[in-house]
Each structure stands twice: as C-alpha cells, then as structure tokens.
Design a protein that fits this description.
single chain, alpha/beta, four-stranded mixed beta sheet, 8 strands, 15% helix
Length: 145
C-alpha cells in the first residue's frame, strides 16, 4: 500500500500495451504487481498510479459500460523530471500530441506558477498532461473580473 493521499486506478483494455506506454514512454516504474489479477502499481518521482486489466468476470468497480476513449472529461497532470526526454520518447513512438508542448503560466493567488507541458493520450484514451515546473514569479498584472 501507499502513503499517497490520492492514487487513481485506471481500468485498461490491454495491460501489456498500457505498461509499455506508462513505463517505456512516460517513465513510470512498477512498484509492485499482481499479474495473476491483471494489476500493477506504478510510480514516478512521487506520482503513483494503479492499472487494472478490464475483466468483466472479476470484482471491479465499473459503474457503466466502458467505451473508448476511457476517462472522458478527465486529465491527469503528472510532474516529470525531464519533459524533453518524455517528448522525445513520444515522438519516437509516433504518439500524437493532444496538446503540443507549450510553456504556460497560471495565476495562483498573487503569483504565477509556470510549467512546460504537453498532453498525450494513453492507449485507452485517458488524457495525460505531462508537466515540468518553470518556477514561480510575481503576478504580471492584476486579474480582471
């Protein structure tokens, strides 16, 4: 088990394909697995995630029929230590960017936090926003209402 306060568990249609994406492309590592149950627990620099192979005969918490793309309406932001390396692996695998790499600053109270980011989709269509911090700066201008 983990000490993390939130660990998403994603149901996936093909666990080996998902592992190639999450580990080989994004950079997660397997913390532990129960392959006989179609389950793996992944981590990357404090980000934690569980993957579970879809099995309609197993004890899974599925509230409705799953239709691709899974995870409609959600994106997972994951801080990565080297966004350029992840971008290079995505490009090498010819994965399309849902949001091409960009630099973005967001207001947080009376300051701005910056990040380089891009969004890709995992094999089941979950949106994955990969980000690397650019730091914090003073608010450029007062927010308009």
């Amino acid at each position: 088990m983990s000490n993390a306060a939130l660990v998403p568990e994603l149901v996936v249609s093909n666990l080996p394909n998902s592992l190639r994406f999450w580990c080989d492309v994004i950079g997660f590592r397997i913390r532990y697995d129960r392959l006989e149950e179609g389950f793996v627990y992944l981590e990357l620099d404090g980000a934690e995630l569980m993957l579970e192979q879809l099995d309609l005969a197993a004890r899974q918490w599925i509230t409705a029929d799953l239709q691709p793309p899974y995870g409609r309406g959600i994106n997972f932001q994951i801080q990565v230590p080297d966004l350029d390396a992840v971008i290079a692996r995505c490009t090498h695998q010819q994965l399309p960017f849902y949001l091409p790499p960009e630099e973005r600053w967001y207001r947080r109270g009376d300051e701005e936090v910056g990040q380089r980011q891009c969004i890709v989709q995992d094999p089941d269509g979950y949106l994955i926003r990969l980000a690397q911090s650019l730091g914090v700066r003073a608010l450029a201008a007062a927010p308009s209402r």
